[in-house]
Amino acid sequence: MNRALALHLIVVAALAAGIFLLPVYHATNLARIMVLAVFAMGYNLAFGYTGLLSLGHAMFFAAGMYAAGLGITLGGWPAGLALLAGPLAGGALALAAGALALRTAGVSFMIVTLMLAQAGYLTILYYTPITRGEEGFVLAQGLRRIGAFDLSQDLNRGLFALGLFTAGLLLSLALVRARFGRIMVAMRENEERSRMLGYNPFTVKLAVMGISGAYAGAAGAAYALLFGSVGASFGAIAFSILPLLWVLLGGAGTTLGPLLGAGLMFYLTDIASSYTSAHQFVVGAALLVLVLFAPRGILGALRERGLKWLP
Amino acid sequence: MFDPYFLLALLEGTVTAAILALTAVGLSLVFGVMRVVNVAHGEFLMLGAVVAWYVATFVPGPPLMTWAAALVIAPLVVGGVAALADRLVLRRLNYEAEGTIVATIGLMYILQQAVLTGFGPGARAVEPPFDWMIDTPWFGYSGYKLAVVGLAALVLGAVWLFMTRSRAGLVMRATQIDRDMARAFGINVDRVYALVFALGAGLAALAAVLLVPVQQAHYLMGHDPMLMAFTVVIIGGLGSVRGTLIAALLIGLSDGVISFYWSPLLAKILATLFVALVLVFRPQGLFGERA
User: What residue of B is the nearest CA neighbor of A115?
Assistant: First the structure.
């Protein structure tokens, strides 16, 4: 029981050490990975724990990103408020999309989420005069500070990403260990039986979609504020598939899998792109290999081979 | 009040519908028989266009001849790739729904990258096999585009005959209705699946050969047709070929008209939203029968 919590705290401590000790290039990568891992953790709550294979999470990430970015540039909001708007926008949009998509299941659910996200992406392009479309826009450095805390500084960026990541990680750990987490897994394993036991699958799944979307939106807003760029490509289909890949690689239904998957994939594409420009090939091959030979991912495989306590 | 541009929009819509119908029938066939949602279907179309470009460039002869050669070669090559993918990947996943979606996404990236590396990032044009113009009182219209519509109709008719009148079609339909019973009757279901997957991909490649003189070959060109084909297949009812044809006509024409008078983006937004709503509120499609 406490072994698990200790492991999570060790991981957080190691990440903190990384931010202070690593050279700037890798520390920035680490900050990026942690923000993307928050996105992946949200995805994991829906896909890994509740069995909702969504192909539209980029829409929630982009919602958070644009809520924060446009809030600052058009609304003149302070950075703190923009960061709060992220999870709210992502969560609200996920609730709306979920209310529609959850009336279907399985393959239809995947396609409905895919189509809704595609409509969202096209909508961003349609309003190119405001959103700057595919090209995107840059948030000026002066706008990216909370009080005196300048988010564009290397160390501050790492610390903020770490804080967001830690909050997300501990929240998801608490969530999956709570009663509600058990119900989520019950929905994944046998929806009919859990319905018979008196749970309403629709409300449970809708709540999970909302939480998952809030994670994605928070990650999107943080990405905009920390790295200063907002663009439509974060709402494209490819960006819905990446969290699926990260979660599959790290281990679906494990709390640390999203971080592991996002980090490994980040450095895998980074290393591959220094040898060849064919980094899409790496993504495609990783998906194929995972689904063929290791459907449980790294941590899932470890959990099967003895580390049963891994949450 | 007759607006000649409305006629032009309708003509363009009909051409879109013809290409779309070919692409979507392949997707629908694969889903109907194998229950596989093939996300890489658009890449098969793209691959067909690339093969057509290579044939047009490296096979000597007048454009009409090379184009006719591409009509034969591209579906064969692409069908072969698809059969290989079926054997190496899909069969090993036992055609399980979620696994095959993830796998075909992987396949999509690999095919795109392969073409990007081998063929390059540029768009390349293929000369139309003939360039007659058909004159109307208001505008001239490409005769080739009308030929595309005719050819697509011919191919679709052939597919329909194949599915309803031939023994292979009968076996495919039997497998679609009950895989285990088909196997009990001694049908080699594995071979049927490989054949269906190849046939679906071949139809996409055929659509590509028709399309490529109008729109250039490019490694990302499969993206939009894939989404459009999904739209059509879902609105027509997953697995229903007749519904697919009606939906292709509907979507093609409305796409032509909306893009003409408003914006192509708006047409796409409306179509994708419409699909999502159809799947939610009428999962059997507008023309399909309840499963």
Answer: B272
User: CATH code for B4-281?
Assistant: 1.10.3470
Q: Which long-range contacts (CB under 8 A, 24 or more apart) does B182-191 make?
A: B190/B91
CA B209/CA B203 separation, integer angstroms = 10
Partner A contacted by B148 (CB < 8 A): no
Query: Are the beta carbons of A100 and B276 separated by less than 8 Å?
Result: yes
Cα A283 to Cα A111, A246, B5, B16, B266: the distances in Å are 21, 10, 45, 32, 31
- Tell me: the pLDDT tens digits for A111-164? 889 889 999 999 998 888 888 877 778 777 777 777 777 777 788 888 889 999
Residue of chain B minimizing CA distance to A121:
B269
In chain B, what are the domain boundaries? 4-281
Say if residues B76 and B55 touch (Cβ distance below 8 Å). no
Residues of A with CB under 8 A from a CB of B: 53, 55, 100-101, 103-104, 106-108, 110-112, 115-116, 118-119, 122-123, 125-126, 241, 244, 248, 277-278, 280-281, 283-288, 290-292, 295
Angle between helices B223-236 and B264-281 in degrees, nearest 10 = 40
Q: How far apart are CA A31 and CA A287, in angstroms?
A: 24
Shortest CA distance from B230: residue in chain A = A111
Element containing residue A146 per DSSP (H, E): strand A145-146
Q: Is the ipTM of this complex over 0.85?
A: no
CA distance linking residue B231 with residue A114, whole number of Å: 11
Q: What is the mean pLDDT of residues A80-93?
A: 92
Q: Does residue A306 carry a pLDDT above 60? A: yes
Domain ranges of chain A: 2-236
Distance CA B204, CA B183 (A): 28
A230: phi then psi, degrees, rounded to nearest 5 = -130, 130
Say yes or no for a CB contact (<8 Å) between A287 and B109. Answer: yes
Q: Both ends of chain A: CA-CA distance in Å?
A: 9
For A215-250, b/e burial (b = at least 16 CB within 10 A) is bbbbbbbbbbbbbbebbbbbbbbebbbbbbbbbbbb
Report residue B104 as tokens. Answer: 């075909």
The pTM of the whole model exceeds 0.90: no
Cβ–Cβ of A284/B108 closer than 8 Å? yes
- State the pairing for strand pair A229-230/A149-150: unpaired
Is the pLDDT assigned to residue B291 strictly greater than 50? no
Sign of CA dihedral B41, B43, A106, B21: negative
Percent of chain B with pLDDT over 70: 96
Strand partners, A145: A150
Helices B167-177 and B189-211 sit at what angle, rounded to 10 degrees?
110
Handedness of CA B236, B91, B82, A261 (dihedral sign): positive
Phi, psi of B138 (to 5 degrees): -110, -35
A287/B103 CB distance under 8 A? yes
Supply the Cα-derived Rg of chain A in whole angstroms: 19
Residue A36 is encoded by which pair of tokens? 């993307």
How many CB pairs below 8 Å do chains A and B form together?
Answer: 109
The encoded tokens of residue A35 equal: 């923000």
Above 80 in pLDDT, residue A207? Answer: yes
